[in-house]
Specification:
heterodimer, A: about 210 residues, mainly alpha, B: about 550 residues, Cytochrome C Oxidase, Chain A, about 65% helix, about 0% strand
Chain lengths: ~210, ~550
């Protein structure tokens, strides 16, 4: 007998068989949200390994340049400000989408992409400067760990910008509405995570490590 | 209450579709059941490959000063044997069985992300192929499965074999991580109404914690392998000692993955055994709550025991002590589980059908593996026996006596659900006893060889060391195991045609997967079931005396 038939058979014999208590629906995250959370946890494990490695090798170089000699703060402070404020703009974008305001959503979303792109441009500029001053991945341990850690983060920013560009393309073709709020929310969670990682990377590499 | 048996012929199409259609269906499928079957088949293929490598290794050690494969090939063989069995047999078979069973057990129609699920399988398979492509470079990597630095540096491993090995493990590691993400989302987000987390079948609970472990420890391995690739191909200095790099860091990164890995390989098996023992003892599982808490405890503590693989590296005394204590600590939840299994069997009407037989094999062998694990967890003892055959004996008792026996129990238990046919009980018994005897002879003997001082990974030994007879017994045991696996493969395929029709619920079990047809339809359940207790099928069969009254 299938499950359904048995359940249906319940009422006729209810006076003899015990009746199960009613089931209270659970209020938890959606499968998509659980998936994103566990994906981000795995990303956190990945970044943690590289951050620990960076700290482990700090000051163990056998040749220069050291972080204090190579890294310059002004540029990275500007790009950091851009990336951090992009968390606010994507939050605004999400909120306006939920309210059903297509045009405002497009504005905030484009602003987020632009801020992410500025951050990437800043990284590219910084790397060119460092390479011109002969800091490469093969130069010393600092170069090895610096390019790996910052590079992995920049890769994540790039991936985020690409995904946001796809959403932008869909939104311009009017295929993103309030109904897609959940999916856009996932992109936003990822972006907040990438921002949060940068706070740690920035602190370790540019503040403590220098 | 009887569950209606549908004639099997009805399910089968009268005109078989052309093989190209079948192939297309399987390669493009996103059905969790088909993906699960493909994972298991892939794992069995790699089991045969890894097994052949093991027999070659053992034959090389049969005679003192023998030159059957020679030292170079020997190093490649043990590297590939370990890599294959851990990454392409152990994890895929567990993930495959989880894929098949989890949605059925929690009463849903598929995994949370079906396409991601397919991606995970194909990444795992192609990762395995990528690792085996290393033979095309003139020889597989000869670095051991844990690939200690600086052996993986360009200086010592000059061919591209090591690059292919690292790339293959990264690719399959991404596949494994996606599978874990999928499990977590499915189990936490898609349970049937009433299937609260404190009511999920125990196998589902262990898969959840295994997935948590995978999500936490696979990415560090990926990071470590990326460092190896950067060192080898871009001239980075992570593990390059001359430029300040550290070989020790690799050991920490690797074992931070490597030790939880053995729990990744055993937790789902704990789950399978916990499903099977109550059904064949005709009793409710003893101490579900304690078992559940012990699983979570193992998952957490296992993240803090990794350096017990590194006692002989020369860590500080504080570090030694910490890892001794944490290693001993993890034996407590494992012991809780063990006593719960015994208490479940105690006073039960035990049937010795093949799944239960393998469970008892699991209990007896895993106990020994666990106890030698505690011995090796004591650093002073470990100093003496590190990297001897005692260690090889220990972890094969855990991985074969534990994981393999448990997986065999699971295969014999769920095969009727997957295929609609029963496996041959007679062949299963032959398989069990050949495996049991061969296994004891192989790995039991290794403990003695190890105490006598034979190191692992040596390709030969002198006759005057007195190790020859023991090595011959070990090799003999390996040869006894070979027909056991041939019988398994024969049984799996022959029973597809000749097996007795199984019906929906051949074992009179209590979990949801037995409430649907065998094999289940693509949509699993006509109506998503509502669950009121830990044994929903018992409630259906006994509406006069349902379980939820007592939980």
């Amino acid at each position: 007998m299938s499950v359904a038939e048995t359940t249906m058979a319940g009422p006729t014999t209810a006076h003899t068989f015990p009746v199960p208590p009613a089931i209270a629906p659970e209020r938890m995250l959606s499968p998509g949200q659980w998936g994103m959370v566990s994906f981000l946890v795995s990303e956190a494990a990945l970044f943690s390994t590289l951050i620990v490695t960076y700290i482990f090798y700090l000051g163990r170089d056998v040749v220069g340049p050291t972080p204090a000699e190579a890294l310059r703060l002004p540029l990275v402070l500007c790009t950091t400000a851009c990336l951090l404020s992009s968390s606010a703009t994507i939050h605004r974008a999400e909120k306006t989408l939920r309210q059903g305001s297509q045009f405002r959503f497009l504005q905030w979303w484009t602003a987020t992409i632009a801020l992410g792109a500025v951050f990437l441009g800043g990284t590219a500029f910084e790397w060119r400067d460092l390479i011109e001053r002969h800091l490469t991945i093969g130069r010393n341990l600092f170069g090895t760990t610096y390019y790996t850690l910052v590079g992995l983060h920049a890769f994540h920013v790039t991936a985020g910008v690409l995904v946001m560009l796809i959403v932008l393309g869909l939104a311009i073709r009017r295929q993103v509405g309030a109904a897609n709020h959940a999916a856009v929310g996932m992109v936003s969670w990822y972006w907040h995570f990438v921002d949060g990682v940068w706070v740690v990377v920035f602190t370790v590499v540019y503040l403590i490590g220098r | 209450m009887a569950i209606v048996e549908e004639p099997l012929e009805l399910a089968r199409e009268s005109a078989a579709p052309p093989w190209t259609t079948v192939l297309h269906n399987w390669t493009t499928t996103v059905d969790h059941k088909k993906i699960g079957i493909m994972y298991v088949l892939m794992a069995l293929v790699f089991l045969v490959i890894g097994g052949i490598e093991a027999v070659l290794l053992r034959w090389q050690l049969f005679w003192p000063r023998y030159d059957f494969v020679g030292p170079d090939a020997f190093n490649q063989l043990f590297t590939m044997h370990g890599t294959t069995m851990v990454f392409f047999m152990g994890m895929p078979i567990l993930i495959g069985m989880g894929n098949y069973l989890v949605p059925l057990m929690i009463g849903t129609r598929d995994m949370a992300f079906p396409r991601l699920n397919a991606l995970g399988f194909w990444a795992t398979l192609f990762g395995g192929l990528l690792v085996y492509f290393s033979f095309a470079t003139g020889g597989a990597p000869a670095i051991g499965w844990f690939a200690y630095a600086p052996l993986t540096e360009r200086t010592f491993a000059r061919s591209a074999a090591t690059d292919l090995w690292a790339l293959g493990l990264i690719v399959s590691g991404v596949g494994t991580t996606t599978a874990a993400v999928n499990f977590i989302a499915t189990i936490l987000g898609m349970r049937a109404p009433g299937m609260a987390l404190h009511r999920v079948p125990f196998f589902v609970w262990t898969i959840l914690w295994t997935s948590v472990q995978i999500v936490l420890v696979l990415p560090p391995l990926t990071a470590g392998l990326a460092m190896v690739l950067l060192d080898r191909n871009l001239g980075a200095h992570f593990f390059d000692v001359q430029n300040g790099g550290s070989a020790l860091l690799w050991q920490h990164i690797f074992w931070f993955f490597g030790h939880p890995e053995v729990y990744i390989l055993i937790l789902p098996v704990f789950g399978m055994v916990t499903e099977i023992i109550p059904v064949f003892a005709r009793k409710v599982l003893f101490g579900y709550e304690f078992m559940a808490a012990a699983t979570a405890a193992i998952a957490f503590i296992s993240l803090g025991v990794w350096a017990h693989h590194m006692f002989t590296v020369g860590m500080s005394r504080a570090q030694d002590l910490f890892f001794i204590v944490s290693t001993f600590l993890i034996s407590i939840p494992t012991g809780i589980k063990f006593f719960n299994w015994l208490a479940t069997m105690y006073g039960g009407r035990i049937s010795f059908a093949s799944p239960m037989l393998f469970c008892i094999g699991f209990l007896s062998m895993f106990l020994i593996g666990g106890l030698t694990g505690i011995m090796l967890g004591a650093a002073p003892f470990d100093f003496q026996l590190q990297d001897t055959y005692f260690l090889i004996g220990h972890f094969h008792f855990v991985l074969i006596g534990g994981t393999l026996f448990g997986v065999m129990a699971g295969i014999h238990y769920w095969y009727p659900k997957v295929t609609g046919r029963m496996l041959s009980e007679r062949l299963a018994r032959w398989q069990f006893w050949l495996l049991y005897v061969g296994f004891l002879l192989t790995f039991g003997t290794m403990h003695i060889t190890g105490v006598l001082g034979m190191p692992r990974r040596i390709y030969t030994y002198d006759a005057d060391r007195g190790w020859a007879l023991l090595n011959q017994l070990t090799t003999l045991g390996a040869i006894i195991q070979v027909p056991s696996f041939i019988i398994l493969v024969y049984n799996l395929f022959a029973s597809l045609r000749h097996g007795r029709p199984a019906g929906d619920d051949p074992w009179d079990a209590w979990t949801l997967e037995w409430s649907t047809t065998s094999p289940p339809p693509a949509y699993n359940f006509e109506v998503i079931p509502t669950v009121h207790s830990r044994r929903p099928l018992w409630d259906l069969k006994h509406p006069d005396d349902p379980d939820w009254q007592y939980e």
